[in-house]
Fold these 2 entries.
Entry 1:
Amino acid sequence: MSLLKLDGIHHSYFTQTTATTALSDISLDIEEGEFVSFLGPSGCGKTTLLSIIAGLIKPTEGTVMLEGQSVQESVNKIGYMLQQDYLFPWKSIEENILLGLKIGGTLKSSKIEYAKSLLEQMGLKGFETQYPKQLSGGMRQRVALVRTLATEPKLLMLDEPFSALDYQTKLKLEDLVSDTLKSYGKTAILVTHDIGEAIAMSDRIFLFSARPGKLHRTFLVPDELRKLTPFNARNHETYSVLFQKVWKELESLESREEH
Ligand SMILES: Nc1ncnc2c1ncn2[C@@H]1O[C@H](COP(=O)(O)OP(=O)(O)OP(=O)(O)O)[C@@H](O)[C@H]1O
């Protein structure tokens, strides 16, 4: 059984006078432990689809099942990492990380130990008593990921989590996030505008067409890239071949939108 199953998703936004169809007939499956990316022209409905998967928006038509249950019954199984870290500035790094567990009523010693091991793995040991403003943007994003992983979500939604970072920090964080998610066998969906990031980090890439967003094509990332770190994948010859393919396909979708 797939971890996540979307079947016939269709979504329109309605006002009193207008209807905007954002998504049309999206069906896809994501397996446990897979890392997939959602790519597509601006406005093709990626954020709408993430919100539907998270159970924040009920689709006009279609179903979303996580581990065979409707998402409305599984909201606590989903974790987020967003473009902004949304850490509480008045709380220390440790307090920020443990907050999700506290709110969820699962602040047990085994969970605290797990959070501490994540903190160490993300290179944040020694920063527990510091405050967000004392950390760099890349470090704050690492704290945000630890806070998310600490609640042990089944599915992680990564909504452009690297797009506000400088290029070098972004490349380093891609490696660290990829390594951490692989080592814990986590399933993740990355929304990005960066084709290279999608190729370097994913097992599969879902390419959506312009509004209304439809699943246009799925690209399988070849094994020789998947076994490398994202940084090393970017330097492999197969990477450029796939980059060209995805680029051309995306460009054709964007030019269709303009006419
Ligand atoms: N609350 C809303 N009410 C009406 N229309 C909306 C609403 N939210 C999104 N839309 C429309 O639905 C379409 C899809 O929007 P969405 O934000 O999901 O796309 P996206 O692919 O995430 O965009 P981007 O890549 O620019 O972030 C767009 O045309 C947008 O204008």
Note: The longest strand covers residues 19-30.
Entry 2:
Amino acid sequence: MTAPELVLTPSEMKQADREAIASGIPGIELMRRAGRAVADAAEKIASSGGRIVVAAGPGLNGGDGFIAAALLAERGYRVSLGLLGSLDHLTGDTLEAARDWRGETPPAEEISFHDADLIVDALFGTGLARDLEGAARLVVERMNASGKPILAVDLPSGIDGSTGEVRGLAVKATHTVTFAARKPCHLLMPGRAFSGTVEVADIGISREILAAKGGSLFANHPPLWLHALPKPGLMSHKYERGHTLVASGGATRTGAARLAARAALRVGSGLVTVASPPEALGVNAAHLTAIMLRGCDGPEGLHAILQDTRFNSLVLGPALGIHSGTRAMVAVAVQARRSLVLDADALTSFEGMASEFRGAFRGAPAVLTPHDGEFSRLFKDHPDILDPASKIEKTRRAAAYTGAVVLLKGADTVIAAPDGRTAINENGTPYLATAGSGDTLCGLIAGLMAQGVPAFEAACAGVWIHAEAGASFGPGLIAEDLAELVPGVLRNLLK
Ligand SMILES: NC(=O)C1=CN([C@@H]2O[C@H](COP(=O)(O)OP(=O)(O)OC[C@H]3O[C@@H](n4cnc5c(N)ncnc54)[C@H](OP(=O)(O)O)[C@@H]3O)[C@@H](O)[C@H]2O)[C@@H](O)CC1
Ligand SMILES: Nc1ncnc2c1ncn2[C@@H]1O[C@H](COP(=O)(O)OP(=O)(O)O)[C@@H](O)[C@H]1O
Ligand SMILES: [K+]
């Protein structure tokens, strides 16, 4: 079985580099391997004998650029290289790499990109320390204006390796070659969009070293959670596949619950029931078939329903209303110790009250699924959670604080467990930004938890399945389509 893909932060990568060096691979050898991987990638883009312009920076990223430039010249390309800063200031492995290069080293701000078949961006990698200014900014502006293919070394210069944010200005690469493992910026927006096609080159740093220095951050793909997905056995009966309960809003706000309920059923929850306020029973009944319906009058009603212990997974929030009644329903659910997905109004009803969640979920697994707005409202009195520039850090802190799995939605959804395990999702499509799409996601996660999938794996699998379903449909997608696309996604996953 394929291992989950490890993603390393720049500081973890630096430690892994050091460990590899300590274990016997000299730094210059790592750099030569990195440079060779860049040259190999360049060869796939630029036709033989073409013109390649390398912009090299003052650090190790620039060193990779020198190695690649020398190799490409040997291989018959017409290569020129511009250096940011002075040759006299190069040190260590970068200085040694620069000795391989036999050509001129004019200032990077003076080289021309207009007749290049390919530009190699080796200005800055994981060592970017501040916003681009002056000469660096000028070079990046001219690269981007050239309209030529750009191959970024490790990551596009100007992108922050850990957050994916643009530091003032960044190279808009068409291709990136990174080393040993992807970094957060290759998956997080906007860095992902600036990276183009990303290739990971093996430079001989073992998975053991990568896992020892990283090991808690992953790309969200099936190898991370496929082992946890249930397959019904020949003798299974529906109660073994769990019973999901979804709370409905009032008479004019019932659709969200039904979307979640349908998704829970499609993802394999053996039974699904919508818990409806009395005044909305008629409208819910008119739209439900395989899904069951129960009257539920507020927190007391929910308490009564949950006396039946077969309801093992709950969705609370979509269209429930922002008020104390919703808070009371959450309290009932928490006390009942069932697997819980809290979304939308169940989060906003706790605006500025995140402390109410602290330690609340010890009795049963919980997943919170905020989008950015809901996240900011819930944690508005917690600058330590809201302020980090990194979406990974924010989500991790929220999970550690609440003790729940936190899933911060968006084009680059991040899922974090209280124990630190974190995944970044990347198979989505902007067509998922449609009304009711988040409700469907809640249902998928609750439906998986109903079948015994642990919270982190259920959240990761739910996000991936949701995104895969959306991407398989494309233009014209509406939330009602999503649950119907789930069987096709599952069929491919479980075959
Ligand atoms: N370690 C290894 O074994 C391996 C590492 N590898 C490679 O190393 C790369 C990381 O190298 P790195 O740590 O030297 O950082 P890097 O990205 O070159 O930048 C630092 C330089 O840029 C400068 N600088 C920063 N920001 C700036 C700004 N805004 N504007 C202007 N200047 C700025 C900064 O100057 P300072 O801040 O000191 O003034 C410093 O001189 C990594 O991405 C990968 O490609 C591979 O070879 C595989 C083996
Ligand atoms: N540009 C995008 N690319 C990929 N997925 C997206 C994008 N925009 C939104 N999504 C996904 O669509 C869903 C929207 O959920 P949410 O904001 O709760 O919407 P709603 O409240 O309308 O259901 C989330 O799963 C989110 O990650
Ligand atoms: K770069």
Note: The chain has a mean pLDDT of 97.
